[in-house]
Design goal:
Order of helices and strands: EEEEEEEEEEE
Number of strands: 11
Shape: globular
Distance between the termini: 37 Å
């Protein structure tokens, strides 16, 4: 599975961005998809994940009420809608694919494939 994230950019605090991850290769629909982020000098952290059927989504506490995730298994895409952005949301955002179920989806080590990342910068 090859992943390409897009949609990042510069936005003012309180604004919104929609990140998209396009997947190519085999069996996208069989993979749990996740979004992670990494700010300068910090470890990569979990943002959100969604099960292969799109029926189970998990969102990190810092993103609850602001971010949502959904997927389209016909278009092979997963989207992270981010609203009410804050300067502390500034980071490179990565999408990832996991082949062995939803267990451990909050951990980077659980994922088999990673995209290159897209920069999100939120100005105050």
């Amino acid at each position: 599975v090859q992943l390409q994230a897009s949609g990042g950019g510069l936005v003012q605090a309180g604004g919104s961005l929609r990140l998209s991850c396009a997947a190519s290769g085999r069996a996208f629909a069989a993979h749990v998809m996740g979004w992670f982020r990494q700010a300068p000098g910090k470890e990569r952290e979990f943002v959100s994940s969604i099960s292969w059927a799109g029926t189970r989504a998990v969102v990190a506490d810092f993103a609850k009420g602001r971010f949502s995730i959904y997927r389209d298994n016909y278009e092979n895409t997963v989207t992270l809608q981010m609203n009410s952005l804050k300067p502390e949301d500034t980071a490179v955002y990565y999408c990832a694919a996991k082949s062995n179920g939803v267990s451990g989806a909050v951990y980077t080590t659980g994922y088999d494939y990673w995209g290159r990342g897209t920069q999100v910068t939120v100005s105050s």
